Amino acid sequence: MKNLFFALISLFLVFSSNNICAQSKKGKRKNKETNQSVKKDNQKETIQPYEKVIKKSAISDEGLFTVHVVGENQYYEISDSLFGREMLMVTRISKTASGLGFGGGKQNTQVLRWERKNKKVLLRVVSHQIVASDSLPIHEAVVNSNFEPILYSFDIKAIGKDSNSTIIQVNKFFEEDVKAIGYPAKRRKSYKITGIDKTRCYIESIKSYPLNIESRHVKTYKSSEPPSNSMVNGL
Questions:
Q1: What is the chain's Cα-based Rg?
Q2: Among candidates 93, 155, 89, 91, which has minimal Cα distance to 125?
Q3: Rounded CA separation 32/14 (Å)
Q4: Is pLDDT of 10 > 80?
Q5: Is the pLDDT score of 129 beyond 70?
Q6: Chain centre to alpha carbon of residue 80
Q7: Could you tell me the pLDDT band of residue 18, with boundaries at 50, 70 and 90?
Q8: Average pLDDT value over all residues in the chain
Q9: What is the pLDDT of residues 214-231, one digit of tens each?
Q10: What does the alpha-carbon distance between residue 103 and residue 96 come to, in Å, rounded to a whole number?
Q11: How many angstroms from the chain centroid is the CA of residue 156?
């Protein structure tokens, strides 16, 4: 199995027997209460105090989102005012291994929406193929027929200092095989790509600007039929 290397750019613009029975039910009830208590404790632990997640050593970059780098962990701090707003995501290949074409080509464009749901942040795909004015009776039917699929689900790691923002960790989003920010499906067939090598995928950089976020990440794919000159050690 050989490997294909790509450097990609993802750009975001502006989820007796009676007693026995009684004792058994009591035991079950006690176990249930214990399990619920443990579950609540676990839920509380999923959202940590801000200072435990974004430590003093964090390198922060303010912009559309505030990007925090803590060691190898990368975080987005999203203002609550940005949830529900549509954003355009453009994915380009910035560099490729030899024999795999040229860098700079646009691979995917999607309209996305960030949504906070309980202890999750969901990244939903928005479609405008069928629309109707909210003043029309058919508007609700159109909305119910265009349920927005979830592209990715993030755990909420912390709440911002002013309680007006939400922190999520984005490492897995960029390092896993998320099709929308990876090598396009049509071209995967050409080289019989079977999957991604997570051990050789990483975030190169994430930069935040007033109206957009630019991320550069490297992905390594497993291929059974790569071009003859695509075997390289890196980019």
A1: 23
A2: 89
A3: 46
A4: no
A5: no
A6: 17
A7: very low
A8: 77
A9: 999 988 888 877 765 444
A10: 6
A11: 11
Contact 208, 235 (CB under 8 A): no
| Phi, psi angles (nearest 5°) of residue 174 | -85, -25
Amino acid at 175: E
Assign 41 to helix, strand or coil. Answer: helix
Assess contact for 121 and 165: CB atoms under 8 A: no
Nearest Cα to Cα of residue 230 among 32, 16, 41, 2: 2
Looking from the CA of 189 toward its CB, the CA atoms found within 13 Å total 2
- Residues 112, 133 contacting (CB under 8 angstroms): no
- Give Cβ neighbours of residue 131 (< 8 Å, ≥ 6 apart): 142
pLDDT computed for residue 95 by the predictor:
77
Sign of the C-alpha dihedral computed for residues 80, 85, 88 and 91 taken in this order: positive
Question: Residue 118 — φ and ψ, nearest 5°?
Answer: 55, -115
Strands 2-13 and 86-96: antiparallel
The residue type at 150: I
CB 220 within 8 A of CB 234: no
Question: 93: exposed, middle or buried (C-beta count within 10 Å: 0-12, 13-18, 19+)?
Answer: buried
Query: What's this model's pTM, rounded to 2 decimal places?
Result: 0.73
Query: What torsion, rounded to 10 degrees, do the Cα atoms 99, 105, 107, 110 define?
Result: 170
CB-based contact 120:15 (threshold 8 Å) = yes
User: CB-hemisphere CA count at 13 Å for 81?
Assistant: 5
Please write the tens of the pLDDT for every residue from 116-125.
999 999 999 9
CA distance 61 to 145: 39
